[in-house]
Structure formats: C-alpha cells, structure tokens
Design goal:
Pfam families: T4-gp15_tss (PF16724). The chain has four helices and 13 strands. By secondary structure, the protein is mainly beta.
Length: 308
C-alpha cells in the first residue's frame, strides 16, 4: 500500500482542544467594583520534552500559572458495533460549476466533472481526558459548572466541511468517571496544584484515501474503417455484392463550409454564404466553443485535401 497520511487524528485533537477554549473564571472584583473575568487557556497535555523546557524557561524553579486546562488521549478502542461492510466502495458523480478566473467567481455553466470512489471507513472510539488545574476550589467549581451544564450528556461535533465526507458528523459524550481532586483527603499543607479530571468519549472514523478521476464528455469519434493501402484491388475480395447499397455519411457542424486562400481559412455558411442571417461574419470562436474550449495560440484546425 502506498504511503497515505491525512492528519485525521491530529485534526480531531485540535478540534477537541478548541471545544474547551472559550471558558472563563471570575477572579474577583476590580477597584471600580466590576467583575474581573479571566479566560482559561487550554493546551495539549502531552507536549514534547523540548517544548516543555522552553515553556518553563529551562528551569525547574518556574511555577505553573493557574488556572488552565489540558487535554490528552487516554485510550483508543475499535468500535465493533459500528463496523459496517469493510469492502464497500461507493461511487459518486460530482459536477462543478465553471470558475471564471478573470471575474474571480463561479458561473452558471458546467465546469469540471469528477468520479469519486469512497472506501468504507474504520470506526474507533477515542477517550479524551480533560484536566482542570486550579489554585483554589472556587476556580474549580466555576469551570466544572460551566462544562457540566454544556454536556447533557453530549454535543455534536463536525470534523469536516467536505460534502462528500460521510463521517463528518460525530458527537462528544461526557463519561461517568469524574475525578474531583487529585489530592488525598485531608489536604493538609500540600502545595501541589489541585487537578480535577473529566473523561469524554468521541466515536470517530479513520477514512482511507478516495479515488478521484476526471470525467470527460466524448466530443469527437474517429473510426478508421480501413486504410486506403489495405483496400483490395480486386472487387471479388470484398465481402459484399455489387448490388448492395453502400453509403458514406459526413457530418459537418452547422453545415458550414470553408474557403482556403493561401494560409487564411474563412468560415462560410451553408451553400458558401459569407454572412449569417443578421448580416454578421461567421465566427470561428462561436463554432469551436460548441465542442471544446478555444485556447488562443494553441487551438489548431487541420485541413485534409480530398483527392479524386
């Protein structure tokens, strides 16, 4: 299997951290009597050793500031009850609108067309732990009350905005295991920072890569019935009799004809007329755009000379 990495677990971790990023605590009253509100930062609970040393200024004497929250993964388990047909391949046909690069917007015309083959995703259950580091009981109760009110018992989580992602919607459910304090009772004179913990279950899908191919409409069909050099010289070698009716059909778009003078090719109408019904000269660009895109200095017209 070729190498494939789409950062799916990393995106789930980032979205989980952002989910707890808007909580605040009240630290007291200011000199004017207004409430002092402080936002509680959220960080990843498993930073690298180098990052941890930089945060602590490469010193063991630097104290951690509180309050803050940390998130980390405690377990990943396969979800057998959500597993469906592992060999399922679903095919979707996608049509895009044409994009006008000069105007910078989409038009009403048909643009690129794709065929997308999606393979059945693999279900897993991720268990995250949220640790709340607080310096006093009041900060802890403020955070826990806000979070416990939000999860009753779960909230929806959208992991992708791709309309073809059939695993974009999941949920985050609070588990029963809630640890009020990391300290032992009675606390005594222990100066260790108090940590309260909550666990959350997130059903997630790991998606294999999809196969995306571009669809093209058939604009020209060329059939080589038989080359001239391969034609038999004797009529007796043909597979038909002389009485059979043979016909050759040549289709000309719009029944146009051309006039060639040196290196100049002029487009004419049916019967060789030079102007259309409105009195305008026939346009090559209008004719070619009916079958393909006209690219200046790239599109070519090949004229074959008819012998006999």
């Amino acid at each position: 299997m070729d190498f494939f990495y789409d950062e799916q677990i990393r995106r789930l971790i980032l979205q989980t951290i952002r989910m707890f990023g808007g909580f605040v605590v009240q630290t007291g009253l200011g000199s004017d009597g207004t409430k002092q509100i402080r936002q509680v930062p959220v960080r990843w609970g498993e930073p690298s050793r180098m990052v941890s040393q930089i945060i602590r200024l490469n010193s063991e004497n630097k104290m951690l500031s509180t309050p803050f929250m940390s998130v980390h993964i405690t377990s990943i388990n396969t979800s057998t009850e959500r597993r469906q047909s592992p060999t399922l391949v679903r095919t979707d046909l996608v049509d895009e609108r044409k994009f006008d690069h000069e105007e910078g917007k989409y038009t009403g015309e048909l643009g690129d067309r794709f065929t997308v083959k999606r393979i059945m995703a693999v279900p897993y259950n991720f268990t995250f732990q949220l640790d709340m580091w607080t310096s006093n009981q009041d900060q802890k109760m403020q955070l826990m009350e806000q979070i416990m009110m939000l999860f009753n018992p779960s909230i929806d989580l959208q992991t992708s905005d791709n309309p073809l992602d059939w695993t974009a919607i999941t949920f985050v459910e609070m588990q029963d295991a809630i640890t009020w304090s990391s300290k032992t009772v009675p606390f005594g004179t222990d100066e260790q920072i108090d940590v309260a913990s909550m666990q959350f279950l997130i059903p997630y899908w790991i998606n294999p890569p999809a196969e995306v191919t571009r669809r093209k409409a058939i604009e020209t069909i060329i059939v080589n019935m038989r080359a001239v050099a391969e034609l038999p010289a004797d009529d007796s070698d043909y597979s038909w009799a002389q009485g059979d009716l043979l016909a050759q059909i040549i289709i000309t778009p719009g029944n146009h004809v051309i006039s060639v003078e040196g290196s100049e090719i002029t487009l004419l109408g049916e019967g060789g007329v030079e102007l259309d019904e409105d009195g305008n000269v026939f346009s090559w660009e209008a004719l070619l755009l009916q079958f393909s895109d006209f690219v200046e200095d790239s599109s070519e017209i090949i004229v074959k000379r008819k012998f006999g």
